[in-house]
Amino acid sequence: MARTTRPLPAERQLVERVLDAWDRHEALELRGGGTKHFYGEAPRGAVLDLRPLRGVIDYEPTELVVTARCGEPLAEIEALLAEQDQHLAFEPPHFAAGGTVGGMVAAGLAGPARAAAGALRDHVLGVRLLNGRGEILRFGGQVMKNVAGYDVSRLLAGSLGILGIMLEVSLKVLPLPAAVETLGFELPEAEALQRLRAWASRPLPVNASAWHEGRLWVRLAGAQAAVRTAAAALGGQRLDRDEAALWWAAVRDHRHPFFRLDDEALAAGTSLWRLSLPPAAPVLELPGAGFIEWGGAQRWLRSSAPGEAVRQAAQRAGGHATWVRGLARDVGVFTPPSAVTMQLHRRLKDAFDPHRLFNPGRLFPDL
Q1: Do residues 216 and 133 share a domain?
Q2: Are residues 162 and 183 both part of a single domain?
Q3: In degrees rounded to 5, what are phi and psi of residue 40?
Q4: Does residue 94 share a domain with residue 120?
Q5: What local confidence, expressed as pLDDT, does residue 314 receive?
Q6: 206 and 138 in a common domain
Q7: Cα separation of 303 and 306, whole Å?
Q8: What number of helices (H) and strands (E) belong to the chain?
Q9: In a domain, 290, yes or no
Q10: What gap in Å lies between CA 227 and CA 106, rounded to an integer?
Q11: In angstroms, rounded to a whole number, what is the distance separating the alpha carbons of residues 311 and 316?
Q12: Other residues' Cβ atoms within 10 Å of the Cβ of residue 260
């Protein structure tokens, strides 16, 4: 259930700006650090910079919850948590320096640990939201057992800011694992997927996995004894811990060469796609290079294949495909939802932002 609250002094200017945009019938592009500006449909409207609204509202390590304003730099939150040997277990991507907490939640993206730790939305406990009527609403809470409005808080994760301005966000945090080990295996794609499926059925502390160009990497994380036992059982080549940390960070933030599209690739019409599939889905017969994460559930594709061909292949495998970056795009960024789902999106937009002020068209062109 939502509760209307009085704006803090630092938020009053935002309320006034939203009401002014309402009067002027002016669209607003909500922007934090701009590190995920490439993600989603092309932004429209006057830029509303949310970086000034920063700060940590509350952090109690024993409660495993941190509450921060939307403009708080993500790097500073992570540094604060690290001082207490805690972290955001879903491993949010940075892509570049300057990302904010609000942008992180709005994008809804998670890194290599997502298959083990859960999605970003699973870690959102509560939010304070400025809606399109200039009202400040609170959903959820600051403790994990508080479920009031919990679904609405989760709903905002991945909404790309189309429902309102997330003024504050409360997030669940977790202790850093006592032990971390990365193992490497020389395996073709089909065999790597088979191994990952087999390991998923066993009580192994697999925290992340990635396959590319005949090499499978598996990260174990947890108690010392569990990681040591699992590493001995799985075998493979052990990677130096510091080297492994840099490699996983490069995957998380798309600094790995696979994710870079140089001028030659762009000239050839190459696009980067993210395919969300059942882990048991077979190897897809699509041209281009692949990169597999999350035990087979997330598969990246660099390809010049037509967008409809990529979408149809993902659909046949029981999933969907999202266009991430490139130049030659012949379809929308996100797979079009069903008529029923689109109607739900419109009803939510009407409820939170009836005047269509916030990030119009960012999620779907006609929303």
Answers
A1: no
A2: no
A3: 100, 180
A4: yes
A5: 98
A6: no
A7: 9
A8: 11, 18
A9: no
A10: 34
A11: 9
A12: 12
Give the confidence band of 328 by pLDDT, cuts at 50, 70, 90: confident
Segment 37-91, tens digit of pLDDT: 999 999 999 999 999 999 999 999 999 999 999 999 999 999 999 999 999 999 9
Question: Which of 356, 348, 264, 342 is CA-nearest to residue 304?
Answer: 264
Cα–Cα separations (whole angstroms), residue 239 to 129, 247, 328? 44, 10, 38
Question: Is residue 312 in some structural domain?
Answer: no
Q: Where are any strands of DSSP class E within the chain?
A: 3-4, 28-31, 46-49, 56-60, 65-69, 86-87, 124-130, 136-140, 165-172, 174-175, 179-186, 206-212, 215-222, 237-239, 271-276, 289-293, 298-303, 320-326
Share of the chain above pLDDT 70, in %: 95
Number of domains in the chain: 2
- In this structure, the answer to whether residues 206 and 102 fall within a common structural domain is no
Is residue 142 predicted with pLDDT exceeding 70? Answer: no
Residue 65 shares a structural domain with residue 193: no
Q: Are residues 137 and 207 in the same domain?
A: no
Domain ranges, residue 216 = 179-252
Asked if 107 and 185 sit in the same domain, the reply is: no
Strand order in the sheet with 237-239: 237-239, 179-186, 215-222, 206-212, 289-293, 298-303, 271-276, 320-326
Check: CB of residue 248 under 8 Å from CB of residue 165. Answer: no
CA 7, 10, 12, 16 dihedral sign is: negative
The pLDDT of residue 195 is 97
164 C-beta neighbours (distance < 10 Å), count: 25
Q: Has residue 328 been placed in a domain?
A: no
Mean pLDDT (the chain) is 93
